[in-house]
């Protein structure tokens, strides 16, 4: 095993001990294996972490660009390598993280597609009617109600435990990115759906997850996405809807109704207000459409 691979294994073990998501560890592992592979071509031994210089890292980054990878993919691979060298820096293996000197590819400024209030409510109302024969209709409705009614990330939704619910006061304790916790209010319809979900819940012994699969275990991120897509296609013929669409809708519809941007930031669990401000641009687009349609001088 090369010295570089040994430090990659050490870093991945640190991620696992730090309770990083399985998804993050899996992606970083794949990215770092490709990083080692680039420097192992032709049967060569890859450099040790201390031997990397700026030129070597730039050549690797240029190779990523030559593959016509999406900028989001390149940014993730660069983040994985930077984090690896941060780990080596903490362990005293290197004295400077040269990967941090590389220029991060800029992301194009794109706005997310957001369903309208009418589209969102029509879909959830159709689910509530129970027209589709499903083994866990109460769970499915609660899933939609919480994604839209509370603006949760899908990872936050499936990560909810029964101990995170304050049914009397109508609050959720949500664990967001980097294990940061926040309190989120639950609207009336979502609370009713949640009560029905809990009443129909059949967990295995010791399972504390709110949302369960058909075996009584915690519902996975992938399972939740599949449920959402199935309903969206079956009831509205829309294959583009995903969990984050409902989170975007939550924020956009609150903003359109006059909610304060900083309050929305807290509700969403954004570390930076700039992340939340993209919903301002969405709202301005809505205003421009109204203006173009209604103003006599438009």
Automatic annotation (TrEMBL):
Molecular-function GO term, any one: DNA binding
Q: Which domain of life is it from?
A: Bacteria
- List, for all copies, the residue spans of the domain called Tyr recombinase: 110-292
Keyword Cell division belongs to the record: yes
Matches recorded under SUPFAM superfamilies: DNA breaking-rejoining enzymes
Q: Name one GO biological process term.
A: chromosome segregation
Which Pfam families does the UniProt entry name for this protein? Answer: Phage_int_SAM_1, Phage_integrase
Active-site positions, per UniProt? 153, 177, 244, 247, 270, 279 (o-(3'-phospho-dna)-tyrosine intermediate)
All copies of domain Core-binding (CB), residue ranges: 2-89
Report whether Cell cycle shows up as a keyword of the record: yes
One Gene Ontology CC term in the entry: cytoplasm
Q: Where in the cell is it found?
A: Cytoplasm
Sorted keywords for this record are:
Cell cycle, Cell division, Chromosome partition, Cytoplasm, DNA integration, DNA recombination, DNA-binding
Primary location: cytoplasm
The text of the family note is: Belongs to the 'phage' integrase family. XerC subfamily.
Q: What does this protein do?
A: Site-specific tyrosine recombinase, which acts by catalyzing the cutting and rejoining of the recombining DNA molecules. The XerC-XerD complex is essential to convert dimers of the bacterial chromosome into monomers to permit their segregation at cell division. It also contributes to the segregational stability of plasmids.
Q: How does it assemble?
A: Forms a cyclic heterotetrameric complex composed of two molecules of XerC and two molecules of XerD.
Name of the protein this chain belongs to: Tyrosine recombinase XerC
Which organism is the protein's source? Answer: Paludibaculum fermentans
């Amino acid at each position: 095993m090369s010295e570089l691979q040994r430090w990659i294994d050490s870093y991945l073990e640190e991620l696992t001990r730090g309770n990083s998501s399985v998804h993050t560890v899996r992606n970083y592992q794949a990215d770092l294996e490709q990083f080692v592979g680039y420097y192992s071509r032709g049967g060569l031994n890859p450099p040790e972490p201390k031997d990397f210089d700026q030129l070597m890292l730039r050549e690797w980054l240029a190779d990523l660009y030559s593959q016509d990878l999406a900028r989001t993919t390149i940014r993730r691979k660069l983040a994985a390598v930077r984090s690896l060298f941060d780990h080596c820096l903490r362990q005293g293996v290197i004295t400077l993280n040269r990967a941090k000197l590389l220029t991060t590819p800029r992301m194009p400024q794109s706005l997310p597609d957001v369903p309208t209030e009418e589209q969102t409510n029509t879909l959830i109302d159709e689910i509530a009617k129970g027209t589709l024969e499903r083994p866990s209709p109460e769970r499915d409705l609660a899933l939609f109600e919480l994604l839209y009614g509370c603006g949760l990330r899908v990872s936050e939704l499936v990560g909810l435990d029964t101990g995170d619910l304050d049914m009397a006061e109508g609050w959720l304790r949500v664990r967001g990115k980097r294990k940061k916790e926040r309190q989120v209010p639950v609207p009336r319809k979502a609370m009713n759906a949640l009560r029905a979900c809990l009443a129909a819940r059949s967990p295995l012994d010791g399972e504390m997850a709110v949302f369960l699969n058909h075996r009584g275990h915690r519902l996975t991120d992938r399972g939740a996405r599949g449920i959402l897509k199935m309903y969206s296609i079956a009831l509205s013929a829309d294959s583009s809807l995903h969990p984050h669409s409902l989170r975007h809708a939550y924020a956009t519809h609150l903003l359109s109704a006059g909610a304060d941007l900083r309050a929305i930031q807290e509700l969403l669990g954004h570390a930076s207000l700039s992340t939340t401000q993209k919903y301002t641009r969405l709202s301005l687009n809505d205003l421009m459409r109204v203006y173009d349609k209604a103003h006599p001088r438009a």
